[in-house]
Design goal:
Shape: globular
Strand content: 5-15%
Order of helices and strands: HEHEHEEHEHHEHEHHEEHHEHEH
Distance between the termini: 27 Å
Structural class: alpha/beta
Helix content: 40-55%
Number of strands: 11
Length: about 300
């Protein structure tokens, strides 16, 4: 069945409800927020019809499907955070986690999944965000191998990996992003950009999204205040210090050309836009309402003839 909003020129959109888990120190606490069933109902009440899929701990996929149905929500592509040896996790374990996560997404009927490397508070790039700190060729080769193997595993499970550059991780800059995408086949590795994180890293977001539009099926839509970003970089602020300085904004209230970035995907883009507000300026529910309203009003660019 064709989504009526998509048929009228709009986009499929979903929410990653992380604003409910934001902490005062600029981080996220997954133990905060409402119980999963209550959260799903709040998301639906805010105007979203789909949610970034994440099966809660201790639940089966069937439990989650039932809760989604009860709330009136569809699942939208989820997220794989890949631990590294520096986190005390061997790569074989990380790859097995990737397989389990992909199988779960496939059970939910999903065909795409964001993949990123894990971010921790003490990481060098969390301490010096957005500048590609401590780049190392040997480490990059290890990350490349991990992304290659993980994306191959996801493909075996019927899910295409979407490379997700993220501030504070070892896949942060435009150069790192392009090297990975150009080095791994498009049949195996897609692109899952985050408008806010790429902007924080100083990337040409419109250029990236245009160049890799054929590999893009999922996007995190995140707005930010570039003035806050620039002042934080000049003052050498950490990730958390930058966040609490007021970096993030609800979609359409920051300083990014979000509409232009999304339009770079072309008139035929029929993938998912997933709203994220890591540190809301509104209470969580009102933040979700504002995000849904902005996304519902967005229209695909007209096809050129």
């Amino acid at each position: 069945m064709t989504d009526p909003l998509f048929a009228s020129g709009g986009y499929k959109f979903a929410l990653n409800p992380i604003q409910w888990f934001a902490t005062e120190d600029g981080w996220l606490d997954p133990t905060k927020g409402p119980a999963p069933q209550d959260l799903l109902k709040e998301i639906a009440r805010s105007g979203f019809h789909a949610v970034h899929a994440q099966v809660p701990g201790g639940w089966t996929t069937e439990d989650y499907k039932d809760a989604l149905k009860d709330a009136g929500l569809q699942p939208a592509p989820g997220y794989l955070s890949m631990a590294l040896p520096e986190h005390g996790v061997d790569l074989a374990t990380t790859l097995e986690t990737a397989r389990t996560g992909a199988a779960q997404q496939a059970e939910l009927g999903l065909t795409d999944m964001f993949i990123a490397t894990r971010m921790t508070k003490d990481a060098p790039r969390v301490q010096r965000p957005g500048v590609g700190a401590d780049f190392d060729e040997a480490r990059f080769a290890m990350i490349f191998d991990l992304v290659d193997k993980a994306s191959a595993i996801l493909k075996e499970e019927g899910v295409r990996a979407a490379l997700h550059p993220h501030i504070g991780t070892w896949i942060e800059t435009e150069a790192e992003t392009r090297r990975l995408l150009d080095g791994i086949g498009s049949d195996q590795l897609g692109f899952g950009p985050d408008t806010g994180h790429l902007s924080w890293a100083g990337a040409d977001v419109i250029g990236l999204m245009s160049d890799y539009r054929d590999r893009t099926r999922v996007v995190h839509v995140k707005d930010c205040r570039l003035g806050v970003r620039d002042a934080a970089k000049a003052a050498a602020k950490t990730y958390q210090e930058t966040v609490v300085s007021g970096l993030w904004a609800e979609p359409g209230t920051g300083e990014l050309d979000l509409a232009g970035m999304i339009a770079a995907l072309g008139p035929d883009f029929d993938g998912w836009l997933v709203a994220e507000v890591d540190f809301p300026t509104l209470p969580p529910f009102e933040c979700a309402e504002a995000s849904a309203l902005w996304l519902a009003g967005l229209r695909r660019p007209a096809a050129s003839h």
